[in-house]
Every structure is written in structure tokens, then in C-alpha cells.
Amino acid sequence: MQRHIPSSSQAAVPAKAKKARLWDRGPDDWYVEEDWCNRALFASPIFKTILAKIIGRVGPNLIIVDPFCGRGRVLDAAADAGYRVFGFDKVDRGASKRHPFAIADFNSLNILATIKDPFIIVGNPPYNGGIPAAQADPAACRALMRRAVEDMGAAAVFLLLRSKWANADKNSRLLEKLPIKYELKFSPRPSMPTGEFVLAAERGDKDPRTDKPCKVGGGQEDFSYYAFDPQHQTEPMFGWLRKSSVVSTSRERSDR
Length: 256
What we know:
Blueprint: H1 15-18, H2 35-43, H3 45-58, E1 63-66, H4 73-80, E2 84-89, E3 101-103, H5 109-112, E4 119-123, H6 138-151, E5 157-162, H7 169-175, E6 180-187, H8 195-203, E7 206-207, E8 212-213, E9 223-228, E10 237-242, H9 252-255
Parallel strand pairs: 1-2, 1-4, 2-3, 4-5, 6-10
Antiparallel strand pairs: 5-9, 6-9, 7-8
């Protein structure tokens, strides 16, 4: 994906390169998973089994919290699956129109202190270079996990992350120290464009790279939901989250 080009160097950039701005990294690393990704998670028998065990441990009335909720796709899918939800983010991108929401960043412990019932965290953290930079760095992912479980009291954490960072030797050894219960890999590969590109597609704008209407799809990178359970002690298990198992019913456009 295109990186953001500092304004001081814009004059030296060919006009063709400037046209790729819809794919430039945004200041908040706002990338958006396809709607089916979260629906596949909540429809998964594996997820339901994990959640049943967590509920047996912490009690009923569980809330699904997304602390980097963006437009609210995790919240939409969870609510449609029958779960109670709460979201927060640094910017309100429309989630507050449909769900309980607060403006705050991930480090705002006072927000979660207002949640009296048990909760788990489900979300797609900043893609790269954000805080926490879990997509780019397993060490940051480990710090995020500790903060979520130890400081915030989450009963479990499900993070949508790039699959490839689990492969390198150093990264895999860091991840071995985390209580990963499952890796649930998406099939087919989901597209993960910038939020600006998603908005352009919804408006019917043309993709400046092709001069055709913007269209989300054709993912070229592997992503998975990683399920972290502080009570898990054995080796991680593996499963699939398939697009064919769900019907996408995105509510974003009608609620904007």
C-alpha cells in the first residue's frame, strides 16, 4: 500500500503517483476490514465454544468491546449476532449513530471502568505505526494484550491481525509467550483498504489508479483473528473463518 508522502516532497512526485492518495496511510492508520470478516467470526462454532467457556468462568451479561471501532463494523456484526456491545475510538466515524460509544483512545482506562459487566475485546487495531502498533510488531501486540487483560480486566481478546508476522523466528518466539488459544484464518483473503477508499467506494467515486469505480475486494494479504485467553495454557489451535458461511448485511451506508 502507498505510504503518505510528506507535503515538502509533493512537488517532486509525478502526477500519476499523486493519484494514489486514496491508498495513502491515514494519520490514524484507519484501515477497514470487509463486513463479512466479523460476521464470520461471530457465526463461527469455534467462537461460540470459546465464548461459552468464558461465560461459564466470568458469568453472563458479557459485553463485546471494540476499543478501535472506527465505523463500527465489529459492533454491527456482534449486535446482529445478539451480543451487547460498546465501542470507543479517537474519532467518531459514525459508530455512535448505532451503538453505545465514547471518544477515547486505547489508554483511557476510565472508559472501561464504567463497564460493570464482564467483557471481551474484539477489534482491528491500528494497521502500522499506530498506538498500539500490534499489526506491525508482535512485541507491541504482547504489550496490548497485557494492558487489555491485566489493566483493563478483559476476559479475553480477539484481534484481527496480519497473519505473516507470526512466521518469523523472533516474532514466533515472542508470540509463544502469549496465551493464544486459536488462530482463525480468513478465506478468501479479505481486502483491507484505507477508510478513505471505503468511503470513496460508497460514494461511487472513481479509483484514480484505474479510472474505474472504486471497488473493495481482491485481497492480497493473509489476515486472521487471533484469540487470546489468559486461562489458556497449551499450544494454539487453528481454524477457518470463511466468507461463504455468512451473508454481509452492512448497515453503515443507510445510517450515515
